[in-house]
Design goal:
The structure is a single chain. Helix content is about 40%, strand content about 15%. It contains 7 helices and 9 strands; from the N terminus they run αααβαβαββαβαββββ. Helix 5 links the parallel strand 2 and strand 3. Helix 1 packs antiparallel against helix 2. The chain is globular.
């Protein structure tokens, strides 16, 4: 178990104590509890940024939602690699239709099973991605369980891909639109040239 995981479990245990026991910290307890939580959060999320071009705030957010259970690949690494890999977009079809990374195919997480990937040899390098990497991490675990040995998760997903100025396409060619997934998650699209759309313009 890593130090990061230990701090995370300590934070969960502390919070669970007050939630499950319906305790309400006051006075002296608050003076100890709040700084302790702040320290644990800082040590938990402020580490291991795979891509120096990523904003610290987005990196911190990703550190809280991703477990790191699947090997992570940075946007910079993907955009400059010569390695031939199968790129799978695990978002829903309506998200993929708005735009996707060139060369990717769409297999939504809900449809990812052995039949959906039976044409892909087990030794094939696979890169999975979604909006930020949360769903694709789950997809990566599924693929590993199916026997795929070279699976990586795009850290920051398509949001970070466009944040760093990389192109996205749809059936009509290059586009400046990206599906934001939700109002909250879409806030992490920081590229001012990108339009957030919930469906492709016809």
């Amino acid at each position: 178990m890593t130090t990061k995981q230990i701090y995370k479990y300590v934070l969960i245990a502390v919070c669970a104590k007050f939630v499950l026991l319906d305790l309400k910290p006051h006075g002296r307890e608050l003076k100890v509890l709040i700084p302790a939580i702040f320290l644990i959060l800082t040590m938990t999320i402020g580490c291991d940024k795979p891509d120096e071009n990523m904003s610290p705030a987005f990196n911190s957010f990703l550190q809280t939602v991703l477990s790191g259970s699947v090997t992570q690949l940075s946007v910079d690494e993907l955009s400059h690699t010569n390695k031939k890999a199968t790129l799978i977009d695990v978002r829903d079809a309506n998200e993929y239709n708005v735009s996707h990374i060139p060369g990717s195919s769409n297999i939504p997480l809900s449809q990812l099973n052995i039949d959906a990937v039976d044409q892909i040899p087990k030794e094939t390098p696979i890169v999975v991605y979604c909006s930020v990497g949360y769903r694709s991490e789950k997809a990566g675990l599924k693929l590993i369980e199916m026997g795929y040995s070279d699976v990586t998760n795009l850290y920051g997903g398509i949001f970070e891909w466009v944040n760093q100025g990389n192109p996205v396409i749809n059936d009509e060619g290059v586009t400046q639109s990206v599906h934001p997934y939700s109002l909250v998650w879409g806030a992490w699209i920081r590229n001012d040239t990108i339009t957030k759309r919930y469906k492709r313009d016809m």
